[in-house]
Amino acid sequence: MLSIAKFGAGLDPVGYYLEIVAAGRDDYYLAPGEAHGRWVGSAATALGLDGEVSPEDLRAMLEGRDPRTGAQLVGWRKIQGFDLTLSAPKSVSLLWGLGDNATADEVVAAHDEAVLAAIAYLEAEACTVRRGREGRLRFPGIGIVAAALRHRTSRASDPNLHAHLVTGNMTRGPDDRWSALFTTKLYGHGRTAGFVYQSVLRHELASRLGVSFEPAVNGAGEIVGIPMPVRRAFSRRRVAIEKAMVEHGVRTAHGAEIATLDTRPTKPQGVSEIDLRADWLEQASELDFGVDAVPRRGRPLSAVVPDAILGRALTDRDATFDRRKVIQAVAESATQGLAYPQVVERVDAFLAGAEAVLVAPGLWTTPEMLAIEAEALGLAIGGGRTRPVALELVRAAIDARRSLSAEQCHAVEAITTGDRPVVLVVGHAGAGKTFALDAARAAWQAAGLEPIGTALAARAARQLQTGSGIPSQTIASLLLDLDTGRNTLTASSAVVVDETGMVGTRNIHRLLKHTTATGARLVLVGDPKQLAEIEAGGLFAARDEGKCNRQNGSIRPEIMPITWSPSSLSSPTAIMGCRRFFSTPPSDMRVL
Predict the structure, then answer these.
(1) Which of 376-414 are b and which e, b meaning 16 or more Cβ less than 10 Å from the residue's Cβ?
(2) Which of 334, 397, 500, 534 shows the greatest Cβ crowding within 10 Å of its Cβ?
(3) Residue numbers of the domain that contains 322
(4) What is the pLDDT of residues 189-215, one digit of tens each?
Protein backbone atom coordinates (compact mmCIF):
# COMPACT_ATOMS: atom_id res chain seq x y z
CA MET A 1 0.00 0.00 0.00
CA LEU A 2 1.06 3.64 0.34
CA SER A 3 2.31 5.33 3.49
CA ILE A 4 3.23 9.00 3.84
CA ALA A 5 5.91 10.50 6.07
CA LYS A 6 6.82 14.18 6.01
CA PHE A 7 10.11 16.04 6.22
CA GLY A 8 9.82 18.99 8.58
CA ALA A 9 11.64 22.27 8.13
CA GLY A 10 14.66 22.92 10.31
CA LEU A 11 15.90 19.35 9.97
CA ASP A 12 18.17 17.70 7.43
CA PRO A 13 15.53 15.63 5.67
CA VAL A 14 17.81 14.40 2.92
CA GLY A 15 20.86 13.18 4.78
CA TYR A 16 19.60 9.62 4.94
CA TYR A 17 18.64 9.55 1.28
CA LEU A 18 21.74 11.45 0.17
CA GLU A 19 23.79 8.66 1.69
CA ILE A 20 21.84 6.08 -0.30
CA VAL A 21 22.09 8.00 -3.58
CA ALA A 22 25.73 8.97 -3.15
CA ALA A 23 26.73 5.41 -2.34
CA GLY A 24 24.70 4.08 -5.23
CA ARG A 25 23.23 1.34 -3.10
CA ASP A 26 20.11 0.09 -1.44
CA ASP A 27 19.93 1.07 2.23
CA TYR A 28 19.80 -2.53 3.46
CA TYR A 29 22.51 -4.27 1.47
CA LEU A 30 25.41 -3.45 -0.80
CA ALA A 31 24.80 -4.38 -4.42
CA PRO A 32 27.55 -3.67 -6.94
CA GLY A 33 26.05 -2.03 -9.99
CA GLU A 34 22.83 -1.10 -8.18
CA ALA A 35 21.08 1.65 -10.12
CA HIS A 36 20.71 5.06 -8.50
CA GLY A 37 17.24 6.43 -7.85
CA ARG A 38 15.36 7.84 -10.84
CA TRP A 39 13.42 11.05 -11.26
CA VAL A 40 9.66 10.68 -11.77
CA GLY A 41 6.72 13.06 -12.06
CA SER A 42 5.70 15.78 -14.49
CA ALA A 43 7.20 18.51 -12.31
CA ALA A 44 10.57 16.76 -12.47
CA THR A 45 10.44 17.02 -16.26
CA ALA A 46 9.55 20.71 -15.98
CA LEU A 47 12.69 21.21 -13.88
CA GLY A 48 14.85 19.36 -16.37
CA LEU A 49 15.34 16.43 -14.00
CA ASP A 50 15.59 13.08 -15.75
CA GLY A 51 17.33 9.75 -15.29
CA GLU A 52 19.47 9.02 -12.25
CA VAL A 53 19.22 11.07 -9.07
CA SER A 54 22.27 12.95 -7.86
CA PRO A 55 22.70 14.08 -4.25
CA GLU A 56 22.98 17.72 -5.33
CA ASP A 57 19.74 17.67 -7.33
CA LEU A 58 17.91 15.86 -4.55
CA ARG A 59 18.91 18.44 -1.96
CA ALA A 60 18.01 21.33 -4.26
CA MET A 61 14.60 19.87 -4.95
CA LEU A 62 13.75 19.38 -1.28
CA GLU A 63 15.00 22.88 -0.46
CA GLY A 64 12.68 24.31 -3.12
CA ARG A 65 15.46 25.42 -5.49
CA ASP A 66 15.85 24.98 -9.23
CA PRO A 67 18.51 22.26 -9.53
CA ARG A 68 19.83 23.82 -12.75
CA THR A 69 20.05 27.51 -11.83
CA GLY A 70 19.94 27.41 -8.03
CA ALA A 71 17.09 29.96 -8.05
CA GLN A 72 14.69 29.73 -5.12
CA LEU A 73 11.34 28.58 -6.52
CA VAL A 74 9.35 28.37 -3.28
CA GLY A 75 9.88 30.08 0.04
CA TRP A 76 9.97 28.69 3.54
CA ARG A 77 7.69 25.71 4.05
CA LYS A 78 6.84 23.97 7.29
CA ILE A 79 6.96 20.70 5.34
CA GLN A 80 9.83 20.43 2.87
CA GLY A 81 8.87 17.11 1.38
CA PHE A 82 7.37 13.68 1.79
CA ASP A 83 8.42 10.07 1.72
CA LEU A 84 5.66 8.23 -0.13
CA THR A 85 6.28 4.50 0.30
CA LEU A 86 4.63 1.90 -1.93
CA SER A 87 5.04 -1.71 -0.82
CA ALA A 88 4.30 -4.89 -2.75
CA PRO A 89 2.47 -7.80 -1.10
CA LYS A 90 4.76 -10.34 0.55
CA SER A 91 4.06 -12.99 -2.10
CA VAL A 92 5.25 -10.61 -4.84
CA SER A 93 8.46 -9.94 -2.91
CA LEU A 94 8.97 -13.70 -2.56
CA LEU A 95 8.45 -14.22 -6.27
CA TRP A 96 11.24 -11.70 -6.82
CA GLY A 97 13.53 -13.01 -4.10
CA LEU A 98 13.14 -16.73 -4.82
CA GLY A 99 12.75 -16.59 -8.59
CA ASP A 100 15.46 -16.80 -11.23
CA ASN A 101 16.97 -13.66 -12.77
CA ALA A 102 14.40 -13.45 -15.57
CA THR A 103 11.52 -13.73 -13.11
CA ALA A 104 13.10 -11.18 -10.77
CA ASP A 105 13.53 -8.72 -13.64
CA GLU A 106 9.89 -9.04 -14.63
CA VAL A 107 8.72 -8.50 -11.05
CA VAL A 108 10.84 -5.36 -10.75
CA ALA A 109 9.52 -4.07 -14.09
CA ALA A 110 5.93 -4.70 -12.99
CA HIS A 111 6.59 -2.92 -9.69
CA ASP A 112 8.08 0.09 -11.48
CA GLU A 113 5.07 0.36 -13.80
CA ALA A 114 2.72 0.23 -10.81
CA VAL A 115 4.68 3.01 -9.11
CA LEU A 116 4.30 5.19 -12.20
CA ALA A 117 0.55 4.51 -12.20
CA ALA A 118 0.27 5.64 -8.58
CA ILE A 119 2.15 8.82 -9.47
CA ALA A 120 -0.16 9.41 -12.44
CA TYR A 121 -3.16 9.11 -10.12
CA LEU A 122 -1.71 11.54 -7.57
CA GLU A 123 -0.90 14.03 -10.31
CA ALA A 124 -4.44 13.79 -11.68
CA GLU A 125 -6.31 13.95 -8.37
CA ALA A 126 -4.08 15.26 -5.57
CA CYS A 127 -1.67 17.77 -7.11
CA THR A 128 -3.23 21.08 -6.08
CA VAL A 129 -2.08 24.59 -5.15
CA ARG A 130 -3.88 27.27 -3.19
CA ARG A 131 -4.32 30.81 -4.38
CA GLY A 132 -6.26 33.88 -3.34
CA ARG A 133 -7.03 35.27 0.09
CA GLU A 134 -6.13 32.79 2.83
CA GLY A 135 -5.59 30.18 0.14
CA ARG A 136 -9.29 29.65 -0.40
CA LEU A 137 -9.01 29.02 -4.14
CA ARG A 138 -7.77 25.64 -5.37
CA PHE A 139 -6.09 25.08 -8.72
CA PRO A 140 -4.47 22.01 -10.31
CA GLY A 141 -0.68 21.90 -10.31
CA ILE A 142 1.50 20.65 -13.14
CA GLY A 143 2.51 17.52 -11.24
CA ILE A 144 4.91 16.24 -8.61
CA VAL A 145 8.68 15.94 -8.53
CA ALA A 146 10.05 12.88 -6.81
CA ALA A 147 13.10 10.68 -6.60
CA ALA A 148 12.00 7.03 -6.81
CA LEU A 149 14.32 4.82 -4.75
CA ARG A 150 13.63 1.11 -5.11
CA HIS A 151 14.38 -1.11 -2.11
CA ARG A 152 14.04 -4.87 -1.99
CA THR A 153 14.56 -6.06 1.57
CA SER A 154 13.26 -5.37 5.05
CA ARG A 155 15.43 -4.48 8.03
CA ALA A 156 15.24 -8.15 8.96
CA SER A 157 16.80 -8.98 5.56
CA ASP A 158 13.60 -10.60 4.26
CA PRO A 159 12.46 -10.01 0.67
CA ASN A 160 10.43 -6.79 0.74
CA LEU A 161 10.04 -5.01 -2.59
CA HIS A 162 9.06 -1.39 -2.09
CA ALA A 163 9.73 2.09 -3.38
CA HIS A 164 10.42 5.33 -1.54
CA LEU A 165 9.20 8.34 -3.50
CA VAL A 166 11.15 11.23 -1.98
CA THR A 167 8.76 13.98 -3.05
CA GLY A 168 9.29 17.72 -2.92
CA ASN A 169 6.57 19.88 -1.41
CA MET A 170 6.34 22.00 -4.54
CA THR A 171 4.55 22.27 -7.84
CA ARG A 172 3.74 24.96 -10.39
CA GLY A 173 0.28 26.47 -10.56
CA PRO A 174 -1.67 27.64 -13.62
CA ASP A 175 -0.07 31.08 -13.21
CA ASP A 176 3.41 29.50 -13.70
CA ARG A 177 4.29 30.32 -10.10
CA TRP A 178 5.82 27.55 -7.98
CA SER A 179 4.38 26.98 -4.52
CA ALA A 180 3.83 24.29 -1.90
CA LEU A 181 1.34 21.52 -2.47
CA PHE A 182 -2.05 21.55 -0.79
CA THR A 183 -1.02 18.74 1.52
CA THR A 184 -4.53 17.92 2.73
CA LYS A 185 -5.35 16.64 -0.73
CA LEU A 186 -2.17 14.62 -0.92
CA TYR A 187 -2.98 12.83 2.32
CA GLY A 188 -6.62 12.44 1.29
CA HIS A 189 -5.70 10.58 -1.90
CA GLY A 190 -2.80 8.53 -0.53
CA ARG A 191 -4.87 5.44 0.25
CA THR A 192 -6.46 5.44 -3.19
CA ALA A 193 -3.07 5.78 -4.86
CA GLY A 194 -2.07 2.62 -2.99
CA PHE A 195 -5.08 0.77 -4.42
CA VAL A 196 -4.11 1.90 -7.92
CA TYR A 197 -0.54 0.70 -7.38
CA GLN A 198 -1.74 -2.73 -6.23
CA SER A 199 -4.19 -3.17 -9.10
CA VAL A 200 -1.65 -2.23 -11.75
CA LEU A 201 0.96 -4.44 -10.08
CA ARG A 202 -1.40 -7.45 -10.31
CA HIS A 203 -2.21 -6.62 -13.91
CA GLU A 204 1.44 -6.35 -14.89
CA LEU A 205 2.46 -9.57 -13.14
CA ALA A 206 -0.50 -11.50 -14.57
CA SER A 207 0.42 -10.25 -18.04
CA ARG A 208 4.18 -10.77 -17.75
CA LEU A 209 4.37 -13.99 -15.75
CA GLY A 210 0.90 -15.52 -15.91
CA VAL A 211 0.46 -15.73 -12.15
CA SER A 212 -2.97 -15.51 -10.55
CA PHE A 213 -4.04 -13.65 -7.45
CA GLU A 214 -6.27 -14.31 -4.49
CA PRO A 215 -9.13 -11.83 -3.90
CA ALA A 216 -7.71 -8.53 -2.69
CA VAL A 217 -8.03 -7.47 0.94
CA ASN A 218 -7.64 -3.75 1.66
CA GLY A 219 -6.61 -3.36 -1.96
CA ALA A 220 -3.78 -5.91 -1.95
CA GLY A 221 -3.93 -9.45 -3.33
CA GLU A 222 -1.47 -12.29 -2.75
CA ILE A 223 -0.23 -14.62 -5.47
CA VAL A 224 -2.00 -17.98 -5.68
CA GLY A 225 0.40 -20.78 -4.76
CA ILE A 226 2.46 -18.92 -2.15
CA PRO A 227 0.76 -19.99 1.08
CA MET A 228 0.37 -17.97 4.25
CA PRO A 229 2.90 -19.99 6.35
CA VAL A 230 5.61 -19.25 3.77
CA ARG A 231 4.70 -15.58 3.63
CA ARG A 232 4.70 -15.45 7.40
CA ALA A 233 8.11 -17.11 7.68
CA PHE A 234 9.59 -14.35 5.52
CA SER A 235 7.87 -11.56 7.48
CA ARG A 236 10.08 -11.38 10.54
CA ARG A 237 9.70 -7.62 10.93
CA ARG A 238 5.90 -7.89 10.90
CA VAL A 239 6.01 -10.74 13.41
CA ALA A 240 8.32 -8.78 15.73
CA ILE A 241 6.05 -5.73 15.59
CA GLU A 242 2.91 -7.77 16.29
CA LYS A 243 4.63 -9.51 19.19
CA ALA A 244 5.62 -6.17 20.72
CA MET A 245 2.06 -4.89 20.35
CA VAL A 246 0.67 -7.94 22.12
CA GLU A 247 3.23 -7.64 24.93
CA HIS A 248 2.29 -4.01 25.51
CA GLY A 249 -1.43 -4.54 25.00
CA VAL A 250 -1.82 -2.02 22.17
CA ARG A 251 -3.95 -2.34 19.05
CA THR A 252 -4.03 1.16 17.57
CA ALA A 253 -2.14 2.49 14.56
CA HIS A 254 -0.16 4.75 16.90
CA GLY A 255 0.76 1.72 18.99
CA ALA A 256 1.95 -0.04 15.85
CA GLU A 257 4.18 2.94 15.03
CA ILE A 258 5.75 2.84 18.48
CA ALA A 259 6.24 -0.93 18.25
CA THR A 260 7.86 -0.47 14.84
CA LEU A 261 10.39 1.97 16.26
CA ASP A 262 11.02 -0.07 19.40
CA THR A 263 11.72 -3.25 17.45
CA ARG A 264 13.72 -1.66 14.63
CA PRO A 265 17.00 -3.56 14.20
CA THR A 266 20.28 -2.14 12.98
CA LYS A 267 20.51 -2.09 9.22
CA PRO A 268 22.56 -4.95 7.83
CA GLN A 269 25.72 -3.77 6.13
CA GLY A 270 27.89 -5.29 3.47
CA VAL A 271 25.59 -8.18 2.54
CA SER A 272 25.44 -8.96 -1.16
CA GLU A 273 22.28 -9.83 -3.03
CA ILE A 274 23.86 -13.16 -4.02
CA ASP A 275 24.33 -14.11 -0.37
CA LEU A 276 20.83 -12.97 0.54
CA ARG A 277 19.27 -15.00 -2.24
CA ALA A 278 21.21 -18.07 -1.17
CA ASP A 279 19.91 -17.67 2.38
CA TRP A 280 16.33 -17.18 1.16
CA LEU A 281 16.46 -20.27 -1.04
CA GLU A 282 17.78 -22.33 1.85
CA GLN A 283 15.01 -21.03 4.13
CA ALA A 284 12.39 -21.80 1.47
CA SER A 285 13.80 -25.28 1.05
CA GLU A 286 13.41 -25.89 4.79
CA LEU A 287 9.76 -24.91 4.34
CA ASP A 288 9.50 -27.33 1.40
CA PHE A 289 8.59 -24.48 -0.92
CA GLY A 290 9.83 -23.30 -4.29
CA VAL A 291 8.43 -20.74 -6.72
CA ASP A 292 8.26 -23.46 -9.38
CA ALA A 293 5.14 -24.60 -7.52
CA VAL A 294 3.40 -21.29 -8.26
CA PRO A 295 0.80 -22.03 -10.99
CA ARG A 296 1.03 -20.13 -14.25
CA ARG A 297 -2.17 -19.76 -16.24
CA GLY A 298 -1.12 -17.82 -19.25
CA ARG A 299 -2.68 -14.40 -18.90
CA PRO A 300 -5.68 -14.49 -16.55
CA LEU A 301 -8.05 -11.61 -17.16
CA SER A 302 -10.00 -9.72 -14.52
CA ALA A 303 -13.73 -10.10 -14.98
CA VAL A 304 -15.68 -6.84 -14.97
CA VAL A 305 -17.72 -6.69 -11.77
CA PRO A 306 -21.36 -5.85 -12.53
CA ASP A 307 -22.50 -2.40 -11.47
CA ALA A 308 -24.96 -3.78 -8.91
CA ILE A 309 -22.27 -5.80 -7.14
CA LEU A 310 -19.86 -2.86 -7.25
CA GLY A 311 -22.53 -0.60 -5.75
CA ARG A 312 -23.22 -3.09 -2.97
CA ALA A 313 -19.50 -3.22 -2.17
CA LEU A 314 -19.32 0.57 -2.11
CA THR A 315 -22.18 0.81 0.40
CA ASP A 316 -21.02 -1.99 2.68
CA ARG A 317 -19.29 0.53 4.95
CA ASP A 318 -20.58 3.94 3.87
CA ALA A 319 -24.02 5.03 2.71
CA THR A 320 -22.43 7.46 0.27
CA PHE A 321 -19.25 7.43 -1.74
CA ASP A 322 -17.09 9.81 -3.73
CA ARG A 323 -14.94 9.19 -6.77
CA ARG A 324 -12.03 8.07 -4.61
CA LYS A 325 -14.10 5.27 -3.11
CA VAL A 326 -15.19 4.12 -6.56
CA ILE A 327 -11.58 4.02 -7.74
CA GLN A 328 -10.70 1.92 -4.69
CA ALA A 329 -13.61 -0.44 -5.28
CA VAL A 330 -12.85 -0.89 -8.97
CA ALA A 331 -9.15 -1.45 -8.31
CA GLU A 332 -9.79 -3.91 -5.49
CA SER A 333 -12.54 -5.86 -7.23
CA ALA A 334 -10.24 -6.55 -10.21
CA THR A 335 -8.73 -9.70 -8.73
CA GLN A 336 -6.18 -10.06 -11.53
CA GLY A 337 -5.64 -6.31 -11.73
CA LEU A 338 -6.35 -3.56 -14.24
CA ALA A 339 -4.16 -1.06 -16.02
CA TYR A 340 -4.65 2.48 -14.74
CA PRO A 341 -6.52 3.71 -17.88
CA GLN A 342 -8.87 0.75 -17.50
CA VAL A 343 -9.54 1.69 -13.88
CA VAL A 344 -10.44 5.25 -14.88
CA GLU A 345 -12.66 4.04 -17.71
CA ARG A 346 -14.53 1.64 -15.44
CA VAL A 347 -15.01 4.33 -12.77
CA ASP A 348 -16.42 6.82 -15.27
CA ALA A 349 -18.81 4.21 -16.67
CA PHE A 350 -20.10 3.27 -13.22
CA LEU A 351 -20.70 6.86 -12.10
CA ALA A 352 -22.61 7.54 -15.33
CA GLY A 353 -24.70 4.38 -14.92
CA ALA A 354 -27.97 3.55 -13.19
CA GLU A 355 -26.37 2.19 -10.00
CA ALA A 356 -24.91 5.55 -8.99
CA VAL A 357 -27.30 8.25 -7.76
CA LEU A 358 -25.91 11.75 -7.23
CA VAL A 359 -27.09 13.06 -3.84
CA ALA A 360 -24.71 16.02 -3.47
CA PRO A 361 -21.89 17.55 -5.53
CA GLY A 362 -19.21 14.87 -5.83
CA LEU A 363 -21.17 12.41 -3.70
CA TRP A 364 -23.20 9.40 -4.79
CA THR A 365 -25.22 6.56 -3.31
CA THR A 366 -27.07 3.60 -4.82
CA PRO A 367 -30.78 3.06 -5.52
CA GLU A 368 -30.67 0.09 -3.14
CA MET A 369 -29.35 2.21 -0.26
CA LEU A 370 -31.93 4.93 -0.90
CA ALA A 371 -34.67 2.31 -0.84
CA ILE A 372 -33.39 0.84 2.44
CA GLU A 373 -33.20 4.27 4.05
CA ALA A 374 -36.64 5.28 2.80
CA GLU A 375 -38.23 2.10 4.13
CA ALA A 376 -36.46 2.46 7.46
CA LEU A 377 -37.65 6.03 7.85
CA GLY A 378 -41.15 5.00 6.85
CA LEU A 379 -41.13 2.39 9.59
CA ALA A 380 -39.89 4.94 12.13
CA ILE A 381 -42.62 7.41 11.18
CA GLY A 382 -45.54 5.03 10.84
CA GLY A 383 -44.57 2.31 13.28
CA GLY A 384 -47.52 2.89 15.56
CA ARG A 385 -47.48 3.64 19.27
CA THR A 386 -45.65 1.73 21.95
CA ARG A 387 -46.48 0.95 25.55
CA PRO A 388 -45.58 3.84 27.91
CA VAL A 389 -44.51 3.58 31.54
CA ALA A 390 -46.53 5.30 34.23
CA LEU A 391 -44.90 8.51 35.39
CA GLU A 392 -44.94 7.49 39.06
CA LEU A 393 -42.84 4.39 38.28
CA VAL A 394 -40.35 6.51 36.41
CA ARG A 395 -40.15 9.06 39.22
CA ALA A 396 -39.51 6.25 41.71
CA ALA A 397 -36.59 4.98 39.63
CA ILE A 398 -35.20 8.50 39.37
CA ASP A 399 -35.63 9.18 43.11
CA ALA A 400 -33.60 6.05 43.84
CA ARG A 401 -30.68 7.64 41.97
CA ARG A 402 -30.25 11.06 43.54
CA SER A 403 -27.09 11.88 41.55
CA LEU A 404 -28.98 12.04 38.25
CA SER A 405 -28.78 15.49 36.68
CA ALA A 406 -31.80 17.37 35.40
CA GLU A 407 -30.90 16.44 31.82
CA GLN A 408 -30.54 12.77 32.73
CA CYS A 409 -33.91 12.83 34.46
CA HIS A 410 -35.44 14.48 31.40
CA ALA A 411 -33.95 11.79 29.15
CA VAL A 412 -35.22 8.97 31.38
CA GLU A 413 -38.76 10.35 31.40
CA ALA A 414 -38.75 10.92 27.64
CA ILE A 415 -37.68 7.41 26.66
CA THR A 416 -39.99 5.65 29.13
CA THR A 417 -43.21 7.67 29.43
CA GLY A 418 -43.59 8.45 25.76
CA ASP A 419 -45.21 6.16 23.20
CA ARG A 420 -43.21 6.86 20.06
CA PRO A 421 -41.76 3.80 18.29
CA VAL A 422 -38.29 5.34 17.96
CA VAL A 423 -36.50 7.66 20.39
CA LEU A 424 -33.01 9.10 19.98
CA VAL A 425 -30.82 9.96 22.97
CA VAL A 426 -27.87 12.15 22.08
CA GLY A 427 -25.06 13.00 24.47
CA HIS A 428 -21.32 13.37 24.35
CA ALA A 429 -18.90 11.00 26.05
CA GLY A 430 -19.13 11.33 29.82
CA ALA A 431 -22.62 12.84 29.81
CA GLY A 432 -23.92 9.90 31.83
CA LYS A 433 -26.06 8.20 29.19
CA THR A 434 -25.44 4.72 30.62
CA PHE A 435 -26.29 5.77 34.15
CA ALA A 436 -29.52 7.32 32.86
CA LEU A 437 -30.30 4.06 31.09
CA ASP A 438 -29.95 2.26 34.42
CA ALA A 439 -32.86 4.33 35.73
CA ALA A 440 -34.82 3.68 32.54
CA ARG A 441 -34.17 -0.05 32.95
CA ALA A 442 -35.56 0.02 36.48
CA ALA A 443 -38.68 1.87 35.31
CA TRP A 444 -39.27 -0.52 32.40
CA GLN A 445 -38.88 -3.56 34.61
CA ALA A 446 -41.18 -2.09 37.27
CA ALA A 447 -43.84 -1.69 34.56
CA GLY A 448 -43.37 -5.27 33.37
CA LEU A 449 -41.44 -4.35 30.25
CA GLU A 450 -38.33 -6.19 29.07
CA PRO A 451 -35.32 -4.00 28.18
CA ILE A 452 -32.87 -5.52 25.70
CA GLY A 453 -29.49 -3.94 25.03
CA THR A 454 -27.32 -4.18 21.96
CA ALA A 455 -24.23 -2.57 20.40
CA LEU A 456 -22.03 -3.17 17.40
CA ALA A 457 -18.99 -4.39 19.35
CA ALA A 458 -18.96 -7.05 22.05
CA ARG A 459 -16.97 -4.74 24.32
CA ALA A 460 -19.57 -1.99 24.00
CA ALA A 461 -22.36 -4.48 24.70
CA ARG A 462 -20.60 -5.65 27.86
CA GLN A 463 -20.12 -2.07 29.03
CA LEU A 464 -23.78 -1.32 28.40
CA GLN A 465 -24.85 -4.34 30.43
CA THR A 466 -22.44 -3.58 33.27
CA GLY A 467 -23.34 0.10 33.46
CA SER A 468 -27.10 -0.07 32.99
CA GLY A 469 -28.02 -3.57 34.11
CA ILE A 470 -29.75 -4.18 30.75
CA PRO A 471 -29.00 -7.67 29.37
CA SER A 472 -27.01 -6.93 26.22
CA GLN A 473 -25.45 -8.63 23.22
CA THR A 474 -23.94 -7.60 19.89
CA ILE A 475 -26.32 -6.40 17.23
CA ALA A 476 -25.15 -9.19 14.92
CA SER A 477 -26.09 -11.87 17.42
CA LEU A 478 -29.38 -10.16 18.31
CA LEU A 479 -30.43 -9.91 14.66
CA LEU A 480 -29.45 -13.54 14.08
CA ASP A 481 -31.58 -14.59 17.06
CA LEU A 482 -34.53 -12.53 15.83
CA ASP A 483 -34.22 -13.66 12.21
CA THR A 484 -34.05 -17.34 13.18
CA GLY A 485 -36.74 -17.15 15.84
CA ARG A 486 -34.42 -18.03 18.72
CA ASN A 487 -35.52 -14.79 20.30
CA THR A 488 -38.67 -12.77 19.76
CA LEU A 489 -39.81 -9.28 20.60
CA THR A 490 -43.19 -8.28 21.98
CA ALA A 491 -45.04 -5.07 22.69
CA SER A 492 -43.41 -5.21 26.11
CA SER A 493 -39.89 -5.04 24.68
CA ALA A 494 -37.67 -1.95 24.76
CA VAL A 495 -34.58 -2.37 22.58
CA VAL A 496 -31.70 -0.05 23.44
CA VAL A 497 -28.93 0.39 20.83
CA ASP A 498 -25.78 1.90 22.33
CA GLU A 499 -23.13 3.70 20.24
CA THR A 500 -25.68 3.95 17.43
CA GLY A 501 -23.35 6.13 15.39
CA MET A 502 -21.26 3.01 14.81
CA VAL A 503 -24.16 0.90 13.57
CA GLY A 504 -24.87 0.70 9.87
CA THR A 505 -28.12 1.64 8.18
CA ARG A 506 -28.79 -1.92 7.05
CA ASN A 507 -28.71 -3.22 10.61
CA ILE A 508 -30.87 -0.37 11.93
CA HIS A 509 -33.29 -1.12 9.12
CA ARG A 510 -33.46 -4.82 10.01
CA LEU A 511 -33.94 -4.00 13.68
CA LEU A 512 -36.69 -1.50 12.88
CA LYS A 513 -38.58 -4.16 10.96
CA HIS A 514 -38.57 -6.38 14.02
CA THR A 515 -39.52 -3.66 16.54
CA THR A 516 -42.29 -2.08 14.49
CA ALA A 517 -43.78 -5.47 13.57
CA THR A 518 -44.17 -6.34 17.26
CA GLY A 519 -44.90 -2.93 18.75
CA ALA A 520 -41.59 -2.83 20.61
CA ARG A 521 -39.85 0.45 21.35
CA LEU A 522 -36.44 1.26 19.82
CA VAL A 523 -34.12 3.60 21.71
CA LEU A 524 -31.08 4.77 19.77
CA VAL A 525 -28.29 6.14 21.98
CA GLY A 526 -25.18 7.87 20.65
CA ASP A 527 -22.47 10.47 20.88
CA PRO A 528 -22.47 13.44 18.46
CA LYS A 529 -18.67 13.24 18.26
CA GLN A 530 -18.51 9.50 17.89
CA LEU A 531 -16.63 7.87 15.05
CA ALA A 532 -18.55 7.33 11.85
CA GLU A 533 -20.42 4.10 11.21
CA ILE A 534 -18.19 1.11 10.49
CA GLU A 535 -20.86 -0.22 8.16
CA ALA A 536 -22.95 1.81 5.72
CA GLY A 537 -24.49 4.48 7.87
CA GLY A 538 -26.21 7.81 7.89
CA LEU A 539 -29.63 6.83 9.22
CA PHE A 540 -28.79 8.02 12.73
CA ALA A 541 -27.71 11.26 11.06
CA ALA A 542 -30.75 11.63 8.88
CA ARG A 543 -33.00 13.94 10.85
CA ASP A 544 -34.24 17.05 9.11
CA GLU A 545 -32.37 20.05 10.50
CA GLY A 546 -35.35 22.26 9.81
CA LYS A 547 -37.42 20.31 12.35
CA CYS A 548 -35.04 20.90 15.25
CA ASN A 549 -36.35 23.24 17.89
CA ARG A 550 -34.21 24.83 20.55
CA GLN A 551 -35.60 26.02 23.84
CA ASN A 552 -33.61 26.96 26.92
CA GLY A 553 -30.51 25.12 25.72
CA SER A 554 -32.25 21.80 25.17
CA ILE A 555 -34.54 19.99 22.76
CA ARG A 556 -37.87 19.06 24.25
CA PRO A 557 -39.16 15.62 23.21
CA GLU A 558 -42.82 16.69 23.17
CA ILE A 559 -42.14 19.09 20.29
CA MET A 560 -39.72 16.72 18.56
CA PRO A 561 -41.69 14.04 16.73
CA ILE A 562 -39.71 11.63 14.59
CA THR A 563 -39.84 13.68 11.40
CA TRP A 564 -37.16 12.18 9.20
CA SER A 565 -36.34 13.67 5.83
CA PRO A 566 -34.99 11.53 2.97
CA SER A 567 -33.47 14.70 1.50
CA SER A 568 -30.86 14.61 4.26
CA LEU A 569 -30.06 10.93 3.84
CA SER A 570 -26.52 9.88 3.13
CA SER A 571 -25.25 13.34 3.97
CA PRO A 572 -21.69 13.30 5.33
CA THR A 573 -22.26 16.69 6.95
CA ALA A 574 -25.18 15.62 9.15
CA ILE A 575 -24.34 14.09 12.51
CA MET A 576 -27.26 12.72 14.46
CA GLY A 577 -29.68 15.44 13.54
CA CYS A 578 -29.04 19.13 13.98
CA ARG A 579 -25.35 19.32 13.19
CA ARG A 580 -25.01 23.06 13.55
CA PHE A 581 -26.71 22.86 16.93
CA PHE A 582 -24.94 19.78 18.25
CA SER A 583 -21.49 20.85 17.07
CA THR A 584 -21.41 23.20 20.07
CA PRO A 585 -23.98 21.72 22.47
CA PRO A 586 -24.86 24.04 25.36
CA SER A 587 -25.76 21.06 27.51
CA ASP A 588 -24.85 17.42 27.80
CA MET A 589 -27.78 15.27 26.76
CA ARG A 590 -30.83 15.53 24.53
CA VAL A 591 -33.72 13.40 23.44
CA LEU A 592 -35.04 13.65 19.89
Answers:
(1) bbebbeebeebbebeeebbeebbeeeeebeebbbbbbbb
(2) 500
(3) 301-364
(4) 999 999 999 999 999 999 999 999 999
